[in-house]
Amino acid sequence: MTDQQPGAPDEPHAPRTAAAPTGADGAPERPTLPAAALDPRPVVAAGFGAWIIATVLILATQGTSASALPVCYAGLVIGALGTAVFLVQRRGARSGRKGAQQGLT
User: Fold this and answer.
1) d(CA 24, CA 49)
2) Helix (H) / strand (E) containing 45
3) pTM beyond cutoff 0.90
4) pLDDT tens by residue, 26-52
């Protein structure tokens, strides 16, 4: 008598695994991302736009005495600085500078 469950096959099968493509160094290759996922412009614009909308809404509903207004101003300043850094890096990448971030062209 065996200890197998009813209906189980007599011999277990090896798990089916697809061979992952490997690079020259033997490491598995990463799949390429679509171009839309690599473009940072929509994220930068959406983040900065969200701070603009939040600031306008706070000013319209609570006025200049709102306690959330300094947070909105800080978000606008940080968003402007981040956008400036992005634009400088993109300009450097397009001109071929060595220290510029890759993939922003």
Assistant:
1) 44
2) helix 41-62
3) no
4) 778 888 888 788 788 888 899 999 999
CA 100 and chain centroid, separation: 19
Closest CA to 2 of 11, 71, 97, 57: 11
CA–CA dist 51, 6 (Å, integer): 63
The answer to whether residue 71 scores a pLDDT higher than 90 is yes
In angstroms, rounded to a whole number, what is the distance separating the alpha carbons of residues 51 and 71? 9
Q: What is the DSSP letter of 23?
A: -
Q: What is the DSSP letter of 64?
A: G
Q: How far apart are CA 79 and CA 12, in angstroms?
A: 58
Distances (CA, A) of 10 to 16, 17, 30, 41, 61: 18, 21, 38, 58, 73
**In the chain, count of helices (H) and strands (E)?**
3, 0
